Amino acid sequence: MNINLAELIGVISGRDWEWTAESVTRILGNQGWSRQAPVLHRIPFVDADGHCASLYLDGNNLPALEVVLESSANPSLLSPIEYEELVDSYYGKFEQSVSEVSEILGTPAFNDGSASNEFPSDQDALWLALWNLGKFRLMIQQKHEGREIPFRLCLVVAPHPEPK
Question: What percent of the chain clears pLDDT 70, i.e. is strictly above it?
């Protein structure tokens, strides 16, 4: 993982976030991230080292900021054994990241897989650890949507879901 997770957590948790695209774009810009051309409902950003982040939009509401901490190569090219090793590797990376964030923010309010009944219904990941930080939630997520899609370890910042 090339991103300094402790530094990133400090920047994110030290903000009183306004959940607008303009506000988060300004915060990312002040941290050296360059805005790229929008892609449908997503505004991509890249930092000087090539790390990627995305703002996911719903109108002017901001459902999530996702920072890719690490991404695998194309797993469809792997043998079944290599694929299982990659599954194990990314679960280990998830656990290590959760441990690092826990040292800064304490024990997560949630830390489990997508099969859990308490898994946040507005999130999409295989594994997720969640910390409640005032107006927003900070999450470490391990994602993998299919054999042909790379594994991703992400830091996600999202507002609390609207009560139903």
Answer: 92
pLDDT digits (tens, 9 = 90+) for 17-35: 677 778 888 888 888 899 9
Residue written as token pair 């990941």: 125
Q: Is 81 left (phi over 0), alpha (psi -120 to 50) or beta?
A: alpha
pTM: 0.87
Both tokens of residue 153? 């370890």
Neighbouring residues of 154: CB distance < 8 A, sequence distance ≥ 6 = 66, 67, 68, 69, 125, 140, 141, 142, 143
Neighbours of 57 (CB within 10 A): 17
**Contact by Cβ (8 Å): 35, 25:** yes
Whose CA is closest to 161, among 129, 127, 119? 119
For 83: left if phi > 0, alpha if psi spans -120 to 50, otherwise beta; the answer is alpha
Q: How far apart are CA 19 and CA 163, in angstroms?
A: 17
Cβ atoms within 10 Å, residue 105: 15
How many Å apart are CA 1 and CA 102, to the nearest integer?
17
